[in-house]
Write a structure and sequence with these properties.
Shape: globular
CATH topology of the largest domain: Rossmann fold
CATH superfamily of the largest domain: P-loop containing nucleotide triphosphate hydrolases
CATH class of the largest domain: Alpha Beta
Strand content: 25-35%
Order of helices and strands: HEHEEHEEHHHEHEHEEHEEEEEEEEEEEE
Strand order of the largest sheet: 5-6-7-3-8-9
Number of helices: 9
CATH architecture of the largest domain: 3-Layer(aba) Sandwich
Radius of gyration: 26 Å
Distance between the termini: 38 Å
């Protein structure tokens, strides 16, 4: 039976659109007062009782509204200080709103800050039991799941060690393992997963997929736009406490980078040709196989992706980039010249170059769209020109596996029991 990835995605969207709300926030405001005069000891306060008591107001949330249906994986992104963590803490009941309302339907499991809810003077055993009970499990259920929690966190040797002696990564593992073992309906996850090592992060991502498949509602704060596209059904971009946009994860990712790096990033050119006023122009993009232009290709063939660039100003060592997305918006391939070359050269006004990227097309069958870009030297974030979905081709195959890629592989089956190792 063939699996239609597009149909599956459309079916999930239809299911979410008909689902009742699990999280609702309406007109949320939260302001923090930052005093001009900071007291560090009681002695200072006693000696200077009439020193200035003026404050600056920091508006962490400013008229934030959103509705997350039951079963949705919802991303919340924004720059540092945009209000992401404050919103999650309000949902978790750590902060109270100054104005507005919020409601949650179902049992909540927050994992929003390293160490919150844990007593540093207690051992892992006591902390797990106490937190699990606070999240709604009975004491017997908490004890029954204790071994699974410790095994997931890989802390069997440290269950009697006080948490104040844990590393930050160990505390993250324990907190995440506890939060995902309480059968919650709604899970709040902040960006503290960045503290964990790569192996543990992969375990967490596998849990995310399992919870998503199980229909749990997840609110996920992160700076990683790749994870937003990978997991989220929708996402929201916050900036200075306000909602800039709620929508498709890919669209949110583009806007997030624009907010971070300024208007030139991901901004479509206003006009083609020499009169556009842009320092660099990507004029055209196409695909080749065996030296011929193609619009479709069999799976596994060598594919050339080419784009023509004209320079209207002198640019030193520009970074050339390219990404391929499938028809549901997942990035399946991305590369830049800075990964292969320290320097690309100097290009003067009026000069035209053709950039070519060759790759074996071991992708799943479907339509793929190419997005070429040119950026200034450095991190590659300061884009001079970027053309979203400038060209497309169709890759066909005799089979549909349901995966994002279909590389060459083999099965090996041996009869008899495996030897002891």
């Amino acid at each position: 039976m063939q699996i239609d990835v597009r149909s599956r995605a459309e079916g999930r969207r239809a299911l979410l659109e008909s689902a009742p709300p699990a999280v609702s926030v309406e007109g949320a405001y939260k302001t923090f007062r930052i005093p001009h005069q900071q007291y560090h000891t009681l002695k200072e306060r006693a000696l200077h009782p009439f020193r200035s008591r003026t404050y600056d107001a920091f508006h962490a949330l400013n008229d934030v509204s959103l509705t997350v249906p039951r079963g949705e994986f919802f991303g919340i992104v924004g720059r540092n200080g945009s209000g992401k963590s404050t919103l999650l803490k309000c949902l978790a009941g750590i902060y109270r709103l100054d104005q507005g309302s919020l409601s949650l339907e179902g049992r909540l499991s927050p994992f929003i800050e390293l160490g919150v809810g844990f007593n540093p003077d207690l051992a892992a055993r006591d902390n797990v039991i106490i937190n699990a009970v606070m999240m709604g499990l009975t004491r017997e259920e908490a004890r029954h799941r204790f071994d699974d929690i410790i095994a997931f966190a890989e802390l069997e040797e440290f269950i009697d060690l006080k948490l104040k002696n844990y590393s930050s990564g160990m505390a993250v593992r324990l907190g995440f393992a506890t939060a995902t073992q309480v059968d919650a309906d709604i899970l709040l996850v902040d960006e503290v997963l960045a503290v964990g090592d790569a192996a543990f992060q992969q375990k967490c991502f596998e849990v995310f997929q399992r919870l998503k498949d199980a229909g749990k509602t997840i609110l996920f704060v992160t700076h990683d736009m790749g994870l937003v596209e990978r997991f989220c059904d929708r996402a929201m971009l916050l900036e200075r406490g306000r909602v800039l946009l709620v929508g498709d994860p890919h669209e949110i990712g583009l806007l997030y980078h624009q907010v971070n790096f300024g208007d030139p990033v991901h901004k479509r050119p206003e006009a083609d040709g020499e009169g556009s006023g842009k320092p660099v122009e990507i004029r055209t993009c196409w695909f080749e196989a065996d030296g011929n232009a193609v619009i479709d290709l069999p799976n596994g063939e060598r594919l050339g992706i080419l784009f023509e660039v004209r320079f209207n100003e002198r640019i030193e060592d520009p970074v050339f980039g390219l990404s391929l997305r499938n028809d549901v918006g997942h990035t399946v391939f991305a590369t830049t010249s800075q990964w292969e070359h320290a320097a690309t050269g100097s290009f003067g006004p009026g000069e035209t170059v053709t950039v070519r990227v060759d790759v074996d097309a071991w992708f799943a069958p479907g339509r793929y769209e190419a997005t070429p870009s040119v950026a200034r030297a450095g991190s590659g974030a300061d884009a001079l020109d970027l053309r979203e979905q400038m060209a497309s081709f169709i890759l066909h195959s005799t089979r549909v596996t349901g995966g994002l890629i279909d590389p060459p592989h083999s099965f090996e089956i041996e009869r008899g029991a495996a030897e002891e190792r």
